[in-house]
Every structure is written in structure tokens, then in C-alpha cells.
Amino acid sequence: MKIENPPIVSVICTAYNQENYIKDALEGFVNQKTNFTFEIIVHDDASTDRTASIIRDYELKYPNLFVTIYQSENQYSKGNNDVGKIVFGLAKGKYIAICEGDDYWTDPYKLQKQSDFLEKNLNCSMVFHLANCINLNNEIIYIHGPKLNQEQGQFNIKDAILNASTLVPTNAMFFHSRYIKNIPSWFFEAPVGDIPLLLLFAHGGDLGFINEKMSTYRVMTPFSWSEQMQSNKKSRVKLFTESQKMWQSFNEWSDYNYKEILNKKYKKNKLDFMQNEFKIKFPFIYSLLKKIKTGNLHFQKDKLNG
User: CATH topology for 9-218?
Assistant: First the structure.
């Protein structure tokens, strides 16, 4: 650790076998233009490709920026949930920003804009922005985040609960570090990390939003969470079961203050799970039904009839 002054922002990145993508993530970090100091904490989970080597190159090039952890054994495969404790425990910044190794930031002023927002909006526990979601061909397939007409906005706990999977892109999260000082046990027992984080922030304050696209999220990359979920039904069932348990634990931890909203969430989760399974098993029928519902099928029929 060579950073002389306490950083204002700690950037946290976790990586595993992402040699084709990690450079984009690291470039997005080092190219940030700010009027404050920041540190870059990178955790490599025993990659078997060149990911760790690429990280070391950046560590040597920017010794005053990087704090690195290189695991000798893959922690994820061992079911070790201590990675979050490790990286959060190292963070010294007033604020924390997150980006996984196969995603990247596209706006060099991202950290500055988000820091300025939280400094002005003291009621907010975090601030996020829009993200482009791309496929393996680097084509934008959708934009992750809310659809608003204004330049900025704020969301509350109800928004976070009912739209937990779609509201906030993980690589857009920028939050006060105080919210990860005493993390409850249910957080580390959860099957994912972004939704528990979102719940902690929404419980602690409002969620700020900057209506700009400042990052890119890759979908279905090898070894990614989305790829594993798409290809393995047992993993999807396990995710659904453990997610429901997480929501129940959050309900207890928050003293049942959001009981009514969470009851709606339980039902929505079940419906979403069944719909997703149908989509994966019968993609053509699902696409057909979706076209009928939106009216696109009728439009295409009229077009064919001339």
C-alpha cells in the first residue's frame, strides 16, 4: 500500500479468469479525473489465465493507486463468502465504488460526478447511473436503469424492494462506506452481493440517480454469473430458494417495517422465476406470446399481407 494521503474513494474490483476484459476495467479506473485521491482495490480469485498477470502490470505502472489481493485457491468454488469482508475491510475511502472485472466504466468523470452528488444530497446513502448492457459481439442489447425524463432523481426503499434486480446496475453503485462497517450476517449468506447491498443502502437513506450512461455491463461472458445462471437449471433453482431466504432474513432484520411490500416481492419473485424458466425451456413460444401481447405479431402479419 503506497497511497500517502487517505483516499476519498475506494474502487473495488473482483476478478476471475477475465483476461479478455480486465484491461478495460482497469483502464476505466486509472483514467478517472477527480479533484480528490482514490485507491483501486482488486481481488483476483486465483485466476488460471492471464488475469492476475495483467493486474500486476497495472500495479507496477500505478503503484500509488493499487491495492491487490491474489488468492492461491479459488474462494468461490470453496463456498467462501469472506471475499466481501476482505475487500470492504481494506477500503479506506469515505465513499466506495464497485465494478467487476468483466465490466468497465466509460465516463472519466464518473467518480467526480457521483461524489459531488452525495456531497450535495446528504439524505442519499448511494448514487447510481445508467449502464449499457452488451453481448459478446459488443452490441448494446439494452440499457440498465430507470427511465426518467429529468437529469437526476431519487428512489426509496419501496422502489428498491420491488425493482431490486432491475433498478441499479452493480457497476454504477457509489455509496457511503459507513454502510458496510457493520454488515449483518444475512448479507454474507445471500447468494448474490448486489441486491443485499442495495437493501442496506435503501434502508439507510434515499437512492440518488444521475440520468447518464457512465458504464458498460457485459452479459453472458465466460465464467460470469449470467452465463452460469443461463446454462444450469440447478443453479437457478438454488438461487431462487436462497434469494427467498435472503428476503425473509432482511424482513426480520428490518423489524418487519416493510412487511407488506415484501409480501408482494415474494409473490413477484415466484412469478418471475416461473416466467424465466418457461422462457429458457420454450424460447420460441415465449417470443411468440410476447409479440402477441405487444401487438408486434399483428404488425408483422399486416406487413406480410401487403
Answer: Spore Coat Polysaccharide Biosynthesis Protein SpsA; Chain A (3.90.550)
Rounded percentage of the chain residues whose pLDDT exceeds 70: 84
Domain range list for the chain = 9-218, 225-296
Spatial distance between the Cα atoms of 179 and 186, rounded to a whole number of angstroms: 14
pLDDT tens-digit profile of 204-231?
999 999 999 999 999 866 655 555 555 5
Q: Are 94 and 177 in contact (CB under 8 A)?
A: yes
Cell of 65: 493507486
**Contacts with 204 (C-beta within 8 Å, 6 or more apart), sequence order:** 125, 176, 179
3-state secondary structure of 70: strand
Return the pLDDT at 303.
Answer: 39
* Degrees, nearest 5: CA angle 44-50-54: 70
Sign of the torsion angle spanned by Cα atoms 221, 222, 225, 226: positive
